[in-house]
Amino acid sequence: MAYRGNRRSRHTAQAVAAAGAAAALLAACSGAGGTASSGGGETVNVLMVNNPQMIELQKLTADHFTKETGIKVNFTVLPENDVRDKISQDFSNQAGQYDVATISNFEIPFFAKNRWLHPLDSYVAKDKAFDQGDILAPMRESLTAEDGKLYGQPFYGESSFLMYRKDVFAEKGLKMSDSPTWQQVADLAAKADGAKPGMKGICLRGQPGWGEVIAPLTTVVNTFGGTWFTKDWQARLTAPEFKKATKFYVDLVRRHGEAGAAQSGYAECLNNLAQGKVAMWYDATAAAGSLESAKSPVKDRIGYVQAPVDKTPSSGWLYTWAWGVQKASKHPDNAWKFISWASSKKYEALVGEKIGWENVPAGKRASTYGNADYRKAAAAFHEVTKRSITGADPRNPGVQPRPTIGIQFVDIPEFSDLGTKVSQEISAAIAGRQSVDQALNKSQALAEKVAKEYRGR
Amino acid sequence: MTVHTVAPHRAARAARRRGLALGLLAWLAGLAFFLPVAWMVLTSLHSESDAATNPPSLGAGLTLDAYREFFDSAAGTGPWPALINSFTASTFSTLFVLLLALPAAYALSIRRVRKWTDVLFFFLSTKMLPAVAGLLPIYLIAKNSGMLDNIWLLVILYTSMNLPIAVWMMQSFLADIPVSIIEAAQIDGARLPSILARVVAPVAGPGLAATALICFIFSWNEMLFARVLTGVTAQTAPVFLTSFITSQGLFLAKVCAASVVISLPVLAAGFAAQDKLVQGLSLGAVK
């Protein structure tokens, strides 16, 4: 302790000098990093969800798009929930890190309303080769905002349909109608349950998440005559139709559904059908590509029919991963060039040739369904897919008028939170931890809170 | 007489049995810690469809496919930019932390400043705010200063995040250095820089190594800030790791392979510094 205070001032000076040097070094480094990150020349930064179609696009970009245009594409790929967070963060702040992002038809209308997106009409008008008229009408409509402007271009689109094991049905003497009702499906599930050792009747999503169990369940609710909200924003989750549909769904999956239903989502069900653990599956039309791919153990053994119905003539959902351009983008022209390539007929042909026609990002262009190569590769499912997509009416999916666009969702930002909370209640009912009535009573209270907000507007 | 000989025998046997039981327990605990890692390595060597089966297929054939896919992950970018970013952020932040923590710890243990305990607790108090609470302000500052997606922003953040821990660790290591050594050096005419470099550093070497390794591991594994603040160019390895997760398809084997590769540098550093670490971490345990 005797030496404390000795040469104190010199130490201070040394410390200050060291800190100063470190700061200078950091500043110099950050300068260097800064220049590198802002980049120069012809680039476009793309943020995408990690789905197989996007990974194929990533693989094909450098050798084709960049070679043709000289524009370098920097991809960031993230899982679905993370990509939604990241897009909301970057776009809501208009931080401009990304020029283009994969945005679904759920977000596009309210992103556009918040002025986070670049309208695409002028590009579409100039780019005749893109052929906007070829894009399927429900897709165009679901990517058009309230102001009538177009804010997204679909990369691929999907509806929902019912898949079943043709071989198992034939063995058991079961017959599937081309447009089955939900009651018929429940009866078939009971009969197909146990058709093979370890095989259950049907796979239905039970995993919590507004994009998981809520999507198929809401289509069932729609066709049973229910709705989340009335046109004047009254929550209707405890209405008899909503209750009947939910009870039907939960009962079906509990009685004849897959093992571990409360944790099963799209990926688990895909695996279950491919591994012969279920005889039927109601889910996205995009699944057909995986089921009919060369590696699939059930290739050529799956039949595809329209989404089951009750009170409505059709009930399939409508979903698309579309390209949206951030308003703050510094390279909107390059962004359009990229979109125009990725969503083009030419790109579909490229995938057909390099990867296989069944993997084409379909469901967006009428011409895809006229292409002989595609029709051949997708013989089992192309017609029913097209019928499902073109038959979907995003503005009028049920028996009563709706407050927003959207079939398997309500198009408000609050829905991702509300839907996820409700999905947790439904999932708990599927797991048998509570009754459907209990789940819906709690959900109604949550929905009513959101409805109240909108009634006041 | 017999009583006298039997009793120690029995005692020795009991002691041996106790030792055996404790040894067994230690092995079990060790296995329990190692099992998830072994599971990860095994899964990474399976094909995607074998990795996804339930119940797990332990005996399925082994393949390096997942590693192959990891290294040539689409578009030819591969994991290298992310690994280099992680390496930059971890190495530089660890270096800066050590440069700043050593003098700070010196002033808190050997040549103590006034109210040094208060200073020490002030350092610790900066860790009391949950990191996520600072996320939004930091994001906005980064955005407005044009530092988003810049690896040097992470270097600064990791330095400041790890500094309090490093100061605390170093303080306890340095406090164990006998003052007499330093006084002897002073009598021999050594000044502060040479005392730090030639007396303190060698004695505190193991402690320094332990601190460096902990800082390196913390920055290497940091995910919260990296996920929010990086994008195209500054993406770090943990963020890159998550990019293999998909809701439409199988990914377990790939994610496990990625986890193995991404854990390797930290494991290697740990093994390299193993003997120093044991010394360092037990330093200050016995006074």
CATH class of the largest domain in chain A: Alpha Beta
Into how many domains do the coordinates of chain B divide?
2
Helix fraction of chain B, binned, reads over 70%
Task: Output the helix-strand order of chain A.
Answer: HEHEHEHHHEEHHEHHHEHEEHHHHHH
In the predicted model, the low-confidence regions of chain A spanning at least 5 consecutive residues are 1-40
Radius of gyration of chain A: 26 Å
Instruction: Give me the CATH fold name of the largest domain in chain B.
Output: MetI-like fold
- Topology of chain B as a string of helices (H) and strands (E): HHHHHHHHHHHHHH
Transmembrane segments (chain B): 20-42, 87-108, 120-139, 151-174, 195-219, 225-244, 251-273
Domain ABC transmembrane type-1 (chain B): 83-273
Membrane topology (chain B): Multi-pass membrane protein
Family (chain B): Belongs to the binding-protein-dependent transport system permease family.
Describe what this molecule looks like in 3D.
The complex is a heterodimer of chains A (about 450) and B (about 290). Chain A is about 45% helix and about 10% strand. Chain A has 18 helices and 9 strands. Chain A has helices at about 10-40, 50-70, 80-90, 110-115, 120-125, 135-140, 165-170, 180-190, 215-225, 240-255, 265-275, 285-290, 330-340, 345-355, 370-375, 380-390, 415-430, 435-455; strands at about 45-50, 70-80, 100-105, 155-160, 160-165, 200-205, 280-285, 300-305, 320-325. In chain A, the strands form 2 sheets. In chain A, strands 2-1-3-9-4 form a 5-stranded mixed beta sheet. In chain A, α9 (about 215-225) crosses α10 (about 240-255) and α17 (about 415-430) runs antiparallel to α18. Chain A is globular, with a radius of gyration of 26 Å. With about 290 residues, chain B is mainly α. Chain B has 2 domains: about 1-70, no CATH class; about 75-280, MetI-like fold (Orthogonal Bundle), CATH 1.10.3720.10. In chain B, α1 (about 1-45) crosses α13 and α4 packs parallel to α7 (about 150-175). The longest helix of chain B has about 45 residues, at about 1-45. The mean pLDDT of chain B is about 85.
